[in-house]
Each structure stands twice: as C-alpha cells, then as structure tokens.
C-alpha cells in the first residue's frame, strides 16, 4: 500500500502542476490573441472592414466546411491551399507589381536585382510595421496595400463564386463549383482571410515577431523562424534524450516483479459470470462500430481520390452532391464516432463485472437508450453537414445544426450537445456499477483510477462548449485542442490502459498489484507530457513565446513512454500462451500488440517528427501531419477500439470461434495496408512539400503548381495500393464481427 501511496501522490502532483500550466497560459492566449480591431481603414479614412464583418466572414468560412476545405494558420485539410499563406503571398505579389508600375513603369519580374531589393525593403516595412492604434481600436493601411487587397479579393471572389476561368483551379483544389453562392458572404469570407494574413505578417506591438510567431515561412517579408523557435526546439530534443535515458534507468533499477506469477485459472474467469441483460444488448453497439468503420474506409478512399480528380470519381462528376469538404468531414467524424463507441462499449461490458456480475436496475434500458441516442447524433450531424456545405441550410442555423467548421469537432452545436448528453448518460451507467463496489473490502486502487478516468471522459468533453460561433479563432483553437488532444490523447489513454489492466486482472493473467502499479505509473507519464503538451498544436495560432516554450518542453516528454512500448507489446503477446483457453482471445490480444507498435511508431516517432517548433514551422499543414494523424488515430485508437470490439464479441457469444482465415487477413492486411499508405504516399508527399516550404515558402508547398506536379500526382495514385490492401483487411474484420453478432449465442461459429 505504501507503494500505491507514492504513486498516487506522484499522479496528483503531475495533474496539479500540468493543469496549472495549461490554465495559466490559457489565460495568456485570451490576453495576447491577435486583435480584431473595430475597423481597418485606409490613410484617407476609408473603411476596409470591421470587426463584425470579419466575424461574419469567419461564420461564412465555417459554413463551407471551414478546416475541411484548405486550412487557416496551418490547421485543416491539405488539398486546397492554406488560405492564410496563399492570401498573404498573393497580396504581397500584387503590392510589388503595383509598386514596380508606380516607380519604374514595368512589372516587378522585369526589374533588376537592385530595384527588386529596394521594393522588397519597402514591402517588408509596410507589412511588418504594426499600425494598430490601441486608443481608437483601428488599423491603418497604406493606399498601395488597399489596392493589393482589392486585387486579391477579386481573385478569391472569382474562385469561391464559380468563375469559369478558374474552373481547373477549383478542380485542383477539390472545390465544388460555386462554393459560396452569396456575393455578400464571399466578401465577408475574403475579409476573414485577409485578417488571418494580417496577423501572420504584422509584428506585435512589443516584439520582433508577428502575431503568429513569424509563421508562415514567407521570404518576401522575411517571415522566418524566431530565435525562440530554434532555442526551444533544441531544448525539446535534449529533454527527449534525457527523458528516455531517465526512463531506461528507472526501468532497470526501480522496476519490481511480483514474488511469483499469479496462478492462471484453468478456465476463463470472465466466463464464470452469467451474461447480464445489458451485456447481451451490446451486440448492436458492435454492429454500429463496424458499420461506421466500413463507411469510414470507403468514404476515406473516395476522399483520397479527390486529391487526383478534384471534382469527380473516375469521370463521374460527384462534387456537386458529395464535395471533398463534405466527404472528408464524414471520414473524420465517422472515425471518431466508431472509435468512441468502441471505448463506450468496453466500459459498458466491464461495468457489470465490476459490480459482481450483476446489472443495477434499468441498466439495460439505459444501454439501449444510449445506443439510439448515438444513432440519432450520427445521422443528424451527417445530414446537417450535408445541408450546410450544400448551402441549403440558412446561415443563422449552420453553427447549431450544420457544420462548425473546426476539424474533428465539425458537428453542429446541437449535435455536439447531444453527444455530450450521451457521454454523461454513459458516465451515469458506469458509476451505478462502480460506486457500490467502492464500499466493499479489499484493494480499490485500480478501481478508483478506472473510475477517475471514466469521470474525466464524461466531463472533459464539455470543454467544447467554451467557445462559440463568433469566438476568436485563437481562443477556439485552445479549447478545440482540449478535446482533440487532451480528451483523446490524455484521458482516453488512461482509460484504455486501466481498462486493459482490469480485463487482464479479471482473467487471472496478471496480479492486481502489477496491474495497479502499471496503471498508476502509466497515468502519471501520459499526463505529464500530455496535458501541457496540448500547446504544441498552438505554436502559430496567435500565441506568444511562453506557450511555445511550454508546448515544446512537455510535448517532448509525451514521446518518452511511447519508446518503451515494445516491452508492453511483448508482455501482451506472451499472454496468448499463459493458458489453453487464451487461444479464444488470441486475436484481440494481437490487436492490442498492434496498438503498442503504432503507439511507438505513429504517435511517438512520427509524432515527434512534427513536434519541435522548428520542424512544425516548415511542415504545419503538410502531408507530414496527415502521416502522423493516420498512424496515431487508426494505428492506436482504431486498433484498440477494434480489439475491444473483438473481445466483447468473444464474451457475449461464449461459444464463438474466430475464423482464422478472416482474422489473419484482417490483422495483417490492415497493418501492411496502413504502412503502405504512409510510407509509399503520404510521407513522401510530405517530404517533398517540406523541401518546397523551406526553400520557397508554405504558399508554394500547398500551391496548385506543386500539388499537381507529375511526381506528386503519381505518389497520390500510388496510395491506391495501400488503400486497397487496407480495405481488404477492414472488410475481413467487419465480416467477422457481423457473423458473430448475428450468430446464435448458443451455437459455435465453426472454423473452416
């Protein structure tokens, strides 16, 4: 018990310190976010745009898919440009051409090097000088810059309005024709894009860096990495090495084994419990999981094809009904839904076991109500997103019923509330089984940790309600990453670790002490890096140097525990041979082994690739991010959710024998397909983009010229091979689950 006490104090200390950092520097984001002035005005006093119009433009951007159509400040989709970098570069080129005509009577490209250097000096001075007047809350702009803004706005109006001369450009950007029909809303959209570019090119009043820490890389105005960026990048690398070294030493000198291995029961202890009504009703959850999973992989392949044929699918013009921004939204949202459902189902399966093999009163009713609530949220949010992007939904209803525009939390606010209510219902169902057990005698440490992770999952999704439709985008990004990073990568990680420990302990495969110690230690390690590591997503989202420092420092520590997951994989793999009856759960165990592998590679190696500020400066918004996202989201959470699904299926169908052919196909083809997808397409594309970003600027790395080059088009076609291999494996596991769910609980499924 003394050992537990030390571990508990360590965990509480980690949580207290890390959340203090997250909260304190979160308030700094509120204080130091780039200003949205009351008005941008010309030297003559003409108003270009106002705060209200910029926020109207933000809502217009949300309605066309927001981060699912290009990106802003590097966050979003990768086919269309980053609108901040693209707008800024186009505006700068327009300014230079206007200046060249005014002073030399010719185009900028026709000038000699000395003349160009002179104009670029004036350009940098005009753009990087901050003319924000804190007393009047206005920003003044030069007349030449006003002209450049007008020219850039004309191009964007034609692009989003369906001008015939830009049809091929829209196809290359995977935009549908007439993306935003309203001319007035297009004007507001342009003003929002302009403001993001202004913040990215204008220095703070008290510093030498822009509001976005000199991001994006733009040589024309000397946007380059700050000194602080380089310093904290080096610090993060040193801390990573030191952290790995410390963990290896601690592992070698402090790790203890039980005096003796637990005696493995002759039969599976979980089968000694009679299935409760609530557990028997989980079959429909498993079907929903694989149904959404199958939908996700097919719509994902459809989305990927848009990167080579931007408005069609093998010659069929599909973009008018199912444009890229919509299918990418569905691809990501369906992944989040089925993975979350897998975790919820795992909790609901464990709850009666924790309660001594019994359901509390009305537990089955609650499980059934939660299922149909999930279905309602999925269907309702998908329909709302379709109506929003088709511009059928009235603009004033978009945020509530349509598309919020923010990647990973795209669903309308009403559906987001419905999802939160469902999670709270799950929390209630879990706590009804956990709390009675707390009063019983015996070691409750593992149960308490599991309970705390359940509570955190239930409550912390509520962070998504701390921003609204017209909230400043820097503030929105802070709260968005509370969900995408902290809720998922923090609390779900602790829940998964503790749930697996519970399962293996109840199977008699590990001792309670070993399960408890491992879970508490893992929770501290995950939270130490994971909580303040949230800031590594916010280096260039209108934040200051301290946010970068905290994010770089702690995000390096996130990687440390992932490096030693090979041992966890080996420990899981060995469980297969602990008892003859373990053969029945061999394949769920193999899926958990895959989780450990992809946690190390996808979350660890590929995650750290984009974590240091100097790396992310050049590759934020490129396919390097997509490489990490696919490897970590599916490789870790996808395999984990599918492992839970197979494990639950095994127990709610006690006589089920997994089809060896299907399971081998599913496991190996999905792992190999994912690796092919990453290393033959996404990563090579990202590396080529990185070189372009470092040499020319982010605008070029995401430009039509580079993205439609023969090499990159070929690499995106090559992805088809990995996609097809992966889909074969996915269909195999789906068919296995469907066969199991719809088989008779009393009859075995014969292995051929």
TrEMBL record:
Signal peptide: none annotated. Keywords: Membrane, Oxidoreductase, Transmembrane, Transmembrane helix. GO terms for molecular function: cytochrome-c oxidase activity; heme binding; oxidoreductase activity. The chain crosses the membrane at residues 7-26, 230-254, 285-306, 335-357, 369-393, 413-434, 446-467, 479-505, 517-535, 547-566, 587-610, 630-652, 672-692, 717-738. Residues 37-217 form the Nitric oxide reductase subunit B cytochrome c-like domain. Coiled coil: none annotated. It is an enzyme of class 1 (oxidoreductase). One of its GO terms (cellular component) is membrane. One of its GO terms (biological process) is aerobic respiration. InterPro entries: Cyt_c_oxase-like_su1_sf (IPR036927), Cyt_C_Oxase_1 (IPR000883), NorB_cytochrome_c-like (IPR054309). Its EC number is 1.7.99.7. PANTHER family: CYTOCHROME B SUBUNIT OF NITRIC OXIDE REDUCTASE, CYTOCHROME C OXIDASE SUBUNIT 1. This is Nitric oxide reductase. It comes from Pseudoalteromonas translucida (strain TAC 125).
């Amino acid at each position: 018990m003394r050992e537990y006490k030390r571990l508990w104090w360590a965990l509480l200390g980690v949580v207290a310190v890390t959340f203090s950092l997250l909260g304190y520097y979160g308030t700094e984001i509120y204080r130091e976010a780039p200003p949205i002035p009351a008005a941008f005005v010309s030297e003559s006093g003409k108003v270009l745009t106002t705060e209200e119009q910029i926020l109207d433009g933000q809502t217009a951007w949300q309605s066309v898919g927001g981060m699912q159509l290009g990106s802003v400040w590097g966050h979003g989709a990768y086919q269309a440009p980053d609108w901040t970098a693209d707008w800024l570069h186009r505006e700068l080129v327009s300014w230079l051409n206007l200046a060249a005509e005014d002073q030399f009577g010719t185009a900028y490209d026709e000038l000699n090097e000395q003349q160009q250097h002179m104009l670029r000096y004036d350009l940098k001075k005009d753009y990087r000088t901050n003319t924000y007047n804190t007393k009047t809350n206005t920003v003044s702009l030069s007349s030449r810059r006003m002209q450049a803004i007008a020219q850039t706005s004309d191009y964007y109006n034609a692009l989003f309005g369906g001008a015939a001369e830009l049809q091929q450009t829209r196809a290359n950007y995977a935009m549908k024709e007439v993306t935003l029909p309203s001319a007035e809303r297009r004007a507001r959209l342009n003003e929002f894009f302009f403001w993001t570019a202004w913040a990215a090119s204008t220095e703070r009043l008290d510093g030498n860096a822009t509001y976005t820490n000199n991001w994006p890389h733009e040589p024309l105005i000397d946007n380059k990495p700050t000194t602080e960026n380089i310093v904290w990048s080096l610090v993060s690398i040193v801390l990573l090495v030191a952290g790995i070294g410390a963990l290896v030493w601690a592992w070698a000198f402090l790790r203890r084994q039980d005096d003796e291995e637990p005696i493995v029961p002759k039969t599976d202890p979980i089968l000694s419990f009679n299935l409760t009504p609530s557990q028997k009703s989980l079959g429909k959850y498993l079907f929903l999981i694989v149904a959404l999973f199958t939908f996700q992989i097919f719509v994902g392949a459809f989305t990927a094809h848009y990167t080579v044929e931007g408005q069609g699918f093998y010659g069929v013009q599909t973009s008018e009904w199912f444009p890229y921004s919509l299918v990418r939204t569905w691809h990501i949202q369906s992944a989040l839904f089925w993975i979350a459902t897998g975790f919820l189902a795992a909790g609901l399966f464990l709850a009666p076991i924790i309660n001594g093999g019994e359901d509390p009163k009305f537990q089955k009713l609650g499980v059934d109500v939660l299922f149909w609530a999930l279905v309602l949220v999925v269907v309702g949010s998908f329909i709302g997103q379709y109506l929003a992007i088709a511009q059928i939904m009235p603009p004033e209803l978009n945020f509530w019923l349509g598309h919020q525009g923010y990647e990973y939390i795209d669903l309308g606010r009403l559906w987001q509330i419905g999802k939160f209510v469902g999670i709270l219902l799950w929390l209630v169902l879990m706590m009804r089984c956990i709390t009675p057990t707390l009063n019983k005698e015996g070691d409750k440490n593992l149960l308490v940790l599991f309970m705390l992770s359940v509570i955190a999952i239930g409550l912390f999704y509520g962070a998504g309600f701390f921003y609204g439709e017209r909230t400043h985008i820097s503030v929105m990004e802070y709260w968005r990453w509370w969900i995408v990073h902290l809720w998922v990568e923090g609390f779900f990680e602790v829940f998964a670790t503790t749930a697996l420990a519970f399962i293996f302990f109840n199977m008699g495969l590990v001792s309670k002490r070993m399960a408890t110690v491992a879970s508490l230690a893992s929770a501290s390690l995950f939270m130490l890096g994971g909580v303040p590591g949230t800031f590594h997503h916010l280096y260039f989202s209108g934040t200051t140097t301290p946010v970068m420092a905290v994010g770089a420092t702690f995000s390096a520590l996130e990687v440390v525990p992932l490096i030693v997951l090979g041992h966890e994989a080996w420990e899981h793999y060995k469980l297969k041979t602990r008892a003859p009856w373990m053969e029945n759960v061999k394949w769920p165990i193999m899926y958990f082994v895959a989780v450990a592998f992809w946690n190390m590679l996808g979350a660890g190696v590929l995650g750290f690739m984009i974590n240091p500020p100097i790396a992310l400066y050049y590759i934020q918004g490129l396919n390097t991010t997509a490489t990490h996202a696919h490897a970590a989201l599916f490789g870790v959470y996808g395999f984990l959710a599918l492992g839970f699904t197979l494990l639950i299926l095994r127990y709610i169908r006690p006589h089920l024998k997994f089809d060896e052919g299907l399971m081998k196909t599913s496991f190996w083809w999905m792992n190999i397909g994912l690796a092919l997808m990453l290393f033959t397409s996404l990563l090579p594309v990202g590396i080529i983009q990185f070189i372009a970003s470092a040499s020319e600027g982010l605008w070029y790395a995401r430009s039509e010229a580079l993205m439609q080059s023969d090499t990159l088009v070929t690499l995106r076609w090559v992805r088809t091979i990995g996609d097809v291999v992966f889909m074969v494996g996915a269909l195999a596991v789906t068919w296995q689950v469907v066969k199991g769910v719809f088989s008779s609980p009393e009859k075995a499924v014969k292995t051929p």
